[in-house]
Write a structure and sequence with these properties.
Elements: H1 15-35, H2 43-70, H3 78-88, H4 91-101
Helix pairs in contact: 2-3, 3-4
Length: 104
């Protein structure tokens, strides 16, 4: 008879992750409406976009952690974040992300 380990739910997320996801969801639709006001998005497409954004953030966080460990510092600078964005995101997407991130 197989025994399940307690708290073995693979989809369990921390409270901080849940708050971050709520924040991301709250931003996406208004931004899309601002960019394309007459365009709608299905729930499935929104889930796919959410997955894409979460994957990108995860890659950025992993590279951030590697750099902080390598440099033996607990924090990184905004310039290092820009470098990480340029490493992770392709071409014009990185350029636009850095541009938007540095706006006042």
């Amino acid at each position: 008879m197989a025994h399940k380990a307690k708290n073995s739910t693979p989809s369990a997320t921390t409270e901080a992750e849940q708050q971050a996801q709520k924040g991301i969801k709250a931003v996406k639709k208004p931004v899309m409406k601002q960019v394309h006001p007459h365009t709608n998005i299905s729930s499935k497409a929104m889930r796919n976009m959410n997955s894409f954004i979460n994957d990108i953030f995860e890659k950025l966080a992993q590279e951030d952690a590697r750099r902080a460990h390598y440099n033996k510092k607990p924090t990184i600078t905004s310039r290092e974040i820009q470098t990480i964005v340029r490493l992770i995101l392709p071409g014009d997407l990185a350029k636009h992300a850095v541009s938007e991130g540095t706006k006042p």
